Amino acid sequence: MAEETMQAKNRAVLEGAVLVARETEAAAVLLAAAVPEAADFLRRELGRGHRVLAARTDAGRAPGDGEIVVLPQVRLRRRGRAKIALLEALAAGQLRPGERVVIISGNGGNGDGELDTVAVVDLVHEEELLDGEADAPLTTLAHATDPAAFDALLNLCVELGHEGREGKRVGLLATLGDHEAVLAHSHPIVLNPFEGHPEDERCILNAPARRALREFSGMDGAFVVREDGVVLAGGRYLEDVSPDAEVPSGLGARHRAAAGVTAATHCIA
User: Fold this and answer.
1) pLDDT digits (tens, 9 = 90+) for 84-135
2) How confident is the model at residue 48 (pLDDT cuts 50, 70, 90)?
3) CB contact at 8 A, 111 and 34
4) Integer Cα distance of 104 and 41 in angstroms
5) Beta strands 231-238 and 222-225: pairing type?
6) How far is CA 150 from the centre of its chain?
7) CATH code assigned to 144-264
8) Which of 8, 166, 169, 193 has the maximal Cβ count within 10 Å?
9) Alpha-carbon torsion (45, 124, 79, 227), positive or negative
């Protein structure tokens, strides 16, 4: 590890995080910042008593990397990077509902450079960090979907929100998992553009399907995706199922529809 090149401030933050992880008996430490030498420091100081997860945008692995959480290749603010890293780790089974996690993040649009924040997140009591709502069904992430499908869909949504389509910002409403219940709670408002195509051409793990979703992102209605990543339908109107809690201020009809169908079924929208 290139400790001699580590900034004094970063070292101080990491030493503080190690102390916090030990004192709070955290199960894991999540490094949500692009400071490569920091992960090595944490693994050495914490030993085998704590899992260390490092979030980064590069999916490539090298010997000794340990557990990594791959993030979308877009610039994210500190909170957004931490939230997506938590979701990815939960979906992949690297973190589990009920665990306590220490999150280390930094300033800058992509959380790189300087570390400045250490937060303790209890995944029993602080689900609002993820979606603004307490008592969110985090267990759904681990049981309702395939981690690779969740990762592919989340990445696509983040990229669309950041880059848009043809230079214009667009939104995308998609459900993942429990497709039979979702179809029962919805009806078509346009012809289904995915009907009749082979499943491998409709699987979001493959680039052609992701490109198709991007092209159809301006379509009214929701996309219904099976738990393994196969897109079953587009242009579905979701029934007005009221979510269990109020949708946070500033969010719109799509967010309310997503919250409602997630509450009414075992999908993730």
Assistant:
1) 888 888 877 888 888 899 999 887 544 446 888 899 988 865 454 454 444 4
2) confident
3) yes
4) 13
5) antiparallel
6) 8
7) 3.40.1700
8) 193
9) positive
Per-residue pLDDT tens digits for 139-188: 556 566 677 888 888 888 888 877 766 667 777 899 998 999 999 999 99
Q: What is the mean pLDDT of residues 199-219?
A: 89
The structure tokens listed for 250 are: 């500033």
Give the residue among 175, 187, 189, 132 at the shortest CA–CA distance from 261: 175
Q: Tell me, yes or no, if the pTM score tops 0.85.
A: no
Which pLDDT does position 239 carry in this prediction?
84
- Helices 8-23 and 36-46 pack at an angle, to 10 degrees, of 40
Inter-residue contact 171 to 161 (CB < 8 Å): yes
DSSP for the chain?
--GGGS-HHHHHHHHHHHHHHHHTT-SEEEE-S--HHHHHHHHHHHGGGSEEEEEES-----TT--EEEE--SS---HHHHHHHHHHHHHHTTSS-TT-EEEEEEESSTTS-S-EEEEEEEETTT-THHHHS-TT--THHHHHSS-HHHHHHHHHHHHHHHHH-BTTB-----EEES-HHHHHHTEEESS--TTTTS-HHHHBTTSHHHHHHHHHTTTSSSEEEE-TTSBEEEEEEEEP----SSPPPTT--HHHHHHHHHHHHSS-B-
CATH of segment(s) 3-139: 3.40.1380.20
Domain map (residue ranges) of the chain: 3-139, 144-264
Q: For 169-179, b where at least 16 C-beta lie within 10 A, e where not — what string?
A: eeebbbbbbbb
Question: Helices 78-91 and 147-163 meet at what angle, rounded to 10?
Answer: 160
